[in-house]
Amino acid sequence: MVHMQDLFDSGKGRRGPTVIVAADGSILAFQGYGARLRRSEDAGETWSETAELESGGGNAIVDTVTGDVLIVRPSASRLWRSRDHGRTWQTEEISVKPNVGGHGATDHAPMSVGASSTGITLQHGEHAGRLLMPGRVQPPMGDNAQEYWAYNYNTSMYSDDRGRTWQVSEPVQSGTGEGTLAELSDGSIYYNSRCHMAVDARRRIAWSHDGGHRWVDWQVCETLKEIGEPFYFKYGTRPSYGCNAGLVRVPLEATNGRDVLLYSAPDNPGGTRVRMTVWASFDRARSWSVKHLVYGGPSAYSSIAADAHGHVYLLFERGLSANPGHDIDHCNITLARFDLDWMLTG
Questions:
Q1: Domain with 105 in it
Q2: In what order do the strands lie in the sheet with 202-208?
Q3: What local confidence, expressed as pLDDT, does residue 195 receive?
Q4: φ and ψ at residue 31, rounded to 5 degrees
Q5: ∠ CA 330-336-340, rounded to 5°
Q6: Which of 80, 96, 140, 278 could covalently link to 71 via disulfide, CB atoms 3.0 to 4.6 Å apart?
Q7: DSSP class of 128
Q8: pTM (whole model) above 0.85
Q9: Can you tell me whether residue 194 is helix, strand or coil?
Q10: How many separate domains does the chain show?
Q11: Which stretch of DSSP H or E encloses residue 329?
């Protein structure tokens, strides 16, 4: 059974749903990419009042080594840190080191966050403990105009000193934007990308085997399709503009040690943003054999998290109009809660 509750209303005109599970089990739901916060200490049954944060938005990461929660905003060279699972926050300056192409620093093609994506703490292999988050580079200087889509690319950032210093990785693939990633139990990292340049309505994927520094085996996902959106493309073709998506590996405690990935996005290949759906993979993202419709109406960006008890939390833009991702005053941020058992049966 799915339980749904609106956590943020449309009146604030802010998008960007992000949901994470803190180290103490609290659920943190953000609006505006980390700018507003509500907390739950009872698995999403009840929620605190909305707290306004000063972060201005960023990627949210739980550091499982220290228990800290971070909101990282690389374009501002700052992060916001909570040492009490989201109750209070302090700001810190950070250092962002560009990749070999010179991209990622604030003065040249700055690194932007991955929209509603969340970072992770690596658990396996020689880079265990590393903080890793998705992002994208948009030369020149963050421009998302269509003539620059071919030069945009997804990438990642990682920190080995608990968030004080971040290294921008090598590119994932050009023409991509707003990616999400997950580590598997063999230490490999799966990266799933929105693609602005696709005419086949399919997501782009890549892998890292060195802790998120180099991304290889770029390929097209045969199962996970991209929505289209009716954007005019000036160069004579109309690619799928795509949509931000959510991705999480369910904690191994809830799966008897088996890799279970959950992916969330609208399910309307080549069309408009409707039918918020969750897919499951049991073979390390080679296939996505189970999917369930969560909400049949207009829906757009999403973020998904899971806890060690098998509870799943999907935070998404639920449209009040036919065009929720672009009519930002007409979409609520809604939480859908369900158990992993529901996802795997029926």
A1: 3-344
A2: 176-183, 189-195, 202-208, 216-225
A3: 85
A4: -120, 150
A5: 155
A6: 80
A7: T
A8: yes
A9: strand
A10: 1
A11: none
Averaged pLDDT for residues 157-165: 97
Residue 65, pLDDT > 90, answer yes
Which amino acid belongs to residue 61? I
- Going from the C-alpha of 57 to that of each of 76, 256, 311, the distances in angstroms are 10, 35, 26
CATH code of 319's domain: 2.120.10.10
pLDDT of residue 324: 61
Per this entry, what is the length of the chain?
346
**Mean pLDDT value across residues 197-218:** 91
Quick check: 17 and 35 in contact, CB under 8 A?
no
In one-letter notation, the amino acid at residue 77 is: S
For residue 70, pLDDT over 90 is answered with: yes
DSSP 195-223: ETTBSS-EEEEEEESSSSS--EEEEEEEE
Per-residue tokens: 81: 């840190």
Cα-based distances in Å from 297 to 1, 141, 181, 266, 275:
18, 35, 26, 10, 6
Is the per-residue pLDDT at 279 higher than 80? Answer: yes
